[in-house]
Amino acid sequence: MTSFWSVVVTLITLGSIGAFAYLLWVCATNRMGKPEGESMGHEFDGIEELNSDLPKWWTYMFVVTILFGLGYLVLFPGLGNFSGVLNWTSANKQITSLEESRAAVANTNGMVQYDQEVSDANAKFAPIFEAFAAQPVAELAYNEEAIKIGKRLFLQNCSQCHGSDAGGTTGFPNLNDDKWNWGGSPEKIKETIMHGRVAAMAAWGDVLGDEGVDAVVEYVLSLSGRRGLDVKLVELGKSKFGLCAACHGPDGTGNEMFGAPDLTDQTWLYGGSRLAIEESVRNGRAGVMPAWDPILGEDKVHVLSAYVFRLSNPNK
After folding, report:
1. What's the predicted TM-score (pTM) here?
2. Which 3-state string (H, E, C) describes the chain?
3. CATH class of 199-289
4. Check whether domain 135-196+291-312 has CATH 2.60.120.10, yes or no
5. Range list for CATH 1.10.760.10 in the chain
6. Tens of pLDDT, residue by residue, the chain (316 residues)
């Protein structure tokens, strides 16, 4: 907030409290020039207004409210840029990275509410996650209590990309099936969540040219059993597929080491239409999954991995 608006907010806030205090003083003082209980000359529907003092309990309550408001503004932020005597804040603001967040937590005086709540939660729940982390992922995946916790972690941190049902969408894989570009074993799933993944497919448009792109697309479509294709174009595409085989393998079945998908099935991360495949071949694809270890810690990732493994392996 700029200094100008800080001053404006401060003046409005203190001015409002001052106005209420003056109104209370006026109403609590007999300024009508008439004795207590005398008629004020106003009558409506048989009800007559008398010159009466405000109820004492109401007046005292109003005074306490004003004093409380002033005390609050001294102790806590509320007057423009003034941070309050206690230097309390709901959260560290203007934080743009985990490093800055950790530094802010280290330098805080304990009056950052969010940091304190996180600290209290970690102290309370850390032993639970530690106990779960002692079990193998494949075993933990069928511990119903752990799965309930893992589902909450998934909804909080993963559903924004993979969907609340883990069904995925264009560019974000479905976690319910048995198709895993980087491997679907418990160990590989945990590795993916812990350290993240960076997938990049090169753009081959300039190398292949328009005819080459069309041919490779036709061949890729044939790998997944698509019918009604141009046989000559398929053969031409097969001869040019060597550029792709380095990652996808000579038979197009993919390579988990590179995260290269299997092109022989009907699962397409970016869409399986001719247009979508052409876009992939011509302009390439780039996908990034963030590493969750710095955010959640290994124990929570362990439980989350068990939940993700369970999605595609519902039966033990």
Report:
1. 0.75
2. CCHHHHHHHHHHHHHHHHHHHHHHHHHHCCCCCCCCCCEEEEEECCEEEECCCCCHHHHHHHHHHHHHHHHHHHHCCCCCCCCCCCCCECCCCCCCCHHHHHHHHHHCCCCEHHHHHHHHHHHHHHHHHHHHHCCCHHHHCCCHHHHHHHHHHHHHHCHHHHCCCCCCECCECCCCCCCCCCCCCHHHHHHHHHHCEEEEECCCHHHHHHHHHHHHHHHHHHHCCCCCCCHHHHHHHHHHCHHHHHHHCCCCCCECCCCECCCCCCCCCCCCCHHHHHHHHHHCEEEEECCCHHHHCHHHHHHHHHHHHHHHCCCC
3. mainly alpha
4. no
5. 135-196+291-312, 199-289
6. 788 999 999 999 999 999 999 999 888 876 666 777 788 778 888 888 887 778 889 999 999 999 999 999 999 988 888 888 888 888 777 777 777 777 777 776 657 888 888 888 889 999 999 999 999 999 999 999 999 999 999 999 999 999 999 999 999 999 999 999 999 999 999 999 999 999 999 999 999 999 999 999 999 999 999 999 999 999 999 999 999 999 999 999 999 999 999 999 999 999 999 999 999 999 999 999 999 999 999 999 999 999 999 999 999 7
